[in-house]
Amino acid sequence: MRTSLSVVIPAYNEQDNISQCLTSVSSVLKKLKLDAEIIIVNDGSTDKTGDIAKKFIKTIPNLKIVTNRPNKGYGGSLKAGFATATKEFIVMTHADNQFDFNQVQDFLSKQAESNADIVSGIRVADSDPKYRQFLRWGWNTLVRAIFGYLATDIDCGFKLIRRSILKKLSLPSDGAMIDTQAFAAARARGLKIVELPVTHLPRTAGQSTGSNPQVIIKALKELLFYWWQLKQEILVEQGRAVFRWEAIIILSILILASFMRLWRIDQYMTFLGDEGRDVMVVRDMLLGRKFTLIGPGTSIGNMYLGPLYYYMMLLPLAVAYFSPVGPAIQIALLGVVTVALVWWIGRQWFGRVPALLISLLYSLSPTVITYSHSSWNPNIMPFFALVSIYGIWKVWRLGYWRWLVISAASFAFILNSHYLGLLLLPTIGLYWFLARKSLDARRYTLISVIVFFVLMSPLLFFDLRHNWLNFRAMAAFFTDRQTTVNLKAYKALPKIWPIWQDINTSLLAGKNIPAGIFTSAFLVIGIVYLIKSRPSKDFLFVLVWLGTGLIGLGLYKQHVYDHYYGFLFPAPFLLLGFIIEKIKKWSYLLLLLLFTVTITNSPLRFPPNNQLAHTREIAEFINTQSAGQPFNLALLAKRNYDKGYVYFLDLAKAPYYTIHQKLSEQLFVICEDPICEPINNPLWEVAAFGWAKVDRQWEFPWGTKLFRLVHNPSGK
């Protein structure tokens, strides 16, 4: 069957070009013997463009002239031409003669060869002025950042499009945005787009309006608005639009999550040595004392983490006037956002109701809450782990390669919070490998690698200045493995069930051991059931995430604490969502059990620890009792060290000195343990003070004791 073609040519004040344009187009169509029509859209021209075009009606019988009054813009002109077109395919070109219309045959051949819905030109040997080329490059870069790869030359005015697809595309723009809208809408709906190079000739007459500042500003506004509009359209078409009842429920869940994390946060937050150390480092940066290139040291392996979490703390600590509550609020808000992400991702993977249920459970989980209302570097891991995993899923499942940059950046933040985040690397690497490599895959992969190394670069600079101290510690961690890790995967097998049970007990079952055992068994049964019933690819994706994490933790030879699970926090909840979708009846009984034990063990049902207030009060008391005289400090505690107290002493500008700095005449010893013997204690700060005796002692209502020691050279 012969191809039929409508040629749409928008024209605005092109009186010097329109005659040559019509002559060229009609002669090419005649030579190709196509069933064709030419549609000139005179867009409110103020010159003789319309009059000249009308003179060709007698010589070109298939010529149609559409007149816009008033001017409707480039997009409005194209839409007017589309509405008039009657043929199977539409070719768009400009009236300025900058395209060689003879190449329309190449467009038709390319379409026939590929069965494409859109064939778009790529201008080669671009004859536009340099400033216009720069504007075009900037526009394409911005569009790719928002929509991903659409086309090499989005605004090339020479295109072929199948007319039947126009009813599928929402094209609200009357301006320069219409090309971007057409490509974005087509890509989002899976329509096929191919490209070919076209000759671009210099403009010989008339003036272009595409680089007009008003046109550019209007296009920028429309770009952001259309991104949101298209997103909503696709959600509706895919049956994933957020209904009013769903919005009300998730908003209620987020309000509940905020309450659970922010209620009396200054009283419930953890504030021990690690937290004190962190605010001391960040305060020093804010005051210009020292800018750090490393983060906290690890408890195993003598390695240093990166400093990104310290950089994250800068703003909230400054806004809070150096109160540690500021960074804790940041973590709490990040926890609320994580609840929202669990819901958003869950509804894409297994539907509305299961997503709401697991997000509610996540918002109430006692362990998640505990690590969501304190400022500590591992506490950012659940958020960034979920973003990183979601990013690589978007790359793998949807081909959105720009999300690889987000995944890589998030992965850098994960490694800056805890090196166990390395256990996400197999999942990220595997699904990068499995993802379909589009035209922009290599570019976004390169950008992602650069972004990752830039974010990790402070550690590199630190190592360069310190003879590769951190690198050598990492190498020793993996080579001297007697007490660190086992690199034989099968060695992890005996530990997988205990770790699996511990994860579910901690995260899903509110620390209730019988409920945790039951939940672990139920989830295993659910996994087997789903595997036998042809599970979705998304379910297998989560299973890989969980499985590699469990194996990795099984190879670790040290004790596994709850915060080590940070990179897996959302995973059991998402796994439960898949099982709820498939095994509704029994899953709801399990949920009833989980909600019961979770609420029963909620942190808010127990008195707050008041660690922050207690630490501040003792530090202020010591400062008062020192009477302005220099003093040293020691802390006797099994699970704490003195940096929390030192922070508040520093804030108060107390005359505190370490033993290294100055051996003073008085030593204040804080005893947090029930049984405490400050005299002759082996703790270095006490021993280095020398022979001493208790001058005075105090006891605080919460049980902490304070001793003031003075020198006693005689030992009597």
Automatic annotation (TrEMBL):
Keyword Hydrolase: no
Highest taxon listed in the record's lineage: Bacteria
Residues in Glycosyltransferase RgtA/B/C/D-like domain copies: 307-460
Molecular function via GO: undecaprenyl-phosphate 4-deoxy-4-formamido-L-arabinose transferase activity
Gene Ontology cellular-component terms listed: plasma membrane
Transmembrane regions: 242-263, 328-346, 353-373, 379-396, 403-432, 444-464, 513-532, 538-556, 563-580
GO BP terms: lipopolysaccharide biosynthetic process
SUPFAM superfamilies the UniProt entry points to: Nucleotide-diphospho-sugar transferases
Keywords tagged on the record: Cell membrane, Glycosyltransferase, Lipopolysaccharide biosynthesis, Membrane, Transferase, Transmembrane, Transmembrane helix
Domain Glycosyltransferase 2-like: 6-169
Name of this chain's protein: Glycosyltransferase
